[in-house]
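If you are new to this repository, start here. Below is one unmodified record pulled from the training split, so you can see the exact layout before writing a loader.
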Amino acid sequence: MRIGLMGFGVVGRGVYELAASRSDMEIVRVLCRRDLSLPDADVTHDARDILNDPSIDTVVETIGGLHPAWDYVRAAIEAGKNVVTANKAMVAEFYDELIPLVERKGVLFRCTAAVGGGIGWLSALERARRMESIREISGIMNGTCNYILDSMTRLGLGYDEALSQAQSLGYAEADPTTDVDGIDTWHKLIVSSNVAFGVSLDKSGVPVWGIRNILASDVSNFKEHGLCCKLIATGRMQGGHFSAFVQPTLFPSFAPESAVPTNFNLITLIGNTSGRQSFFGQGAGRYPTAYNVAEDLADLICGHGFYSPCSESVPVHNHETFQFYVRGASDEWLESHTELHWGDAVVTVPVSVAQMHRWCASHPNVFMAAMPERKDIHC
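And here is the target side for that same chain:
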């Protein structure tokens, strides 16, 4: 396998190092903005040097973002090259074009590292779907948010201190918006749901609320009631209807989600035959993520591509109801839907996910979290 590596950042360098130890993978060209010298690969600033090289049969994309990543990936597929990517934003945004293009061109494509970092989640999900219908996927899909929430809960840190610590350890970017506002998790949920259910979700119908507004007082409130907060992505299929949403969610202290530490992920599928299966591991980092990219390359060598049936875009209906913890704003609607007062916060009567997210969109400074069932709350 002769590989053109696009991007030489954290993940790209990890892929380069892992491939160098194998005799069946040769990285012959590397696309990089910086000037650098590599002992066994040519470095270029021009993607055409990779795309137009007939000796390169596989392209690995670790640039991230939408453009020029999608432009390069599309051109590589059009040129008949196999592609491996870790880019969840690109796969989520261009899923409707990407999967049919791969099938039409007859190339091999894999993107396991796009969700779950070092966890082989998408590969396991695709494999499960060949044998059974998947009813639900859910879990912790963002290591940055989990690190922040875990540090606030376990160490008693404030949000700013926990974020700063995450940044110093390389778990959070200098601008953490994509992570803390839930956008990274949103992309991963869309990709996972599309694979699990064999559809293409209408992204505009998938609401997201992040953890930016959480305070130490919220965490203290949760601990007093035996609860722990995590950012959770959920996708469900029931009776031919689909729901999908990202929101902070409270779990009793004995739940598996409450025990997930630092930057780890815990993602679960529920199948009609197998029941519940959960996947745990590091959700980010150079070598965990690069490991799954290299695993994908090994699958390509064996002729195993990643193919998921893709229907036309399907609507999302978020009619599920939860009680919600809400702090930071009040109005007539919230007052009329309040059941309990927890200090300066309230707990609502059961309302739909769609209703709650619509209300939050008009109150951008609030913090809200879905409540567990009553039996799991220490009153």
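Two things worth knowing about this chain: The mean pLDDT is 95. The chain has 14 helices and 19 strands.
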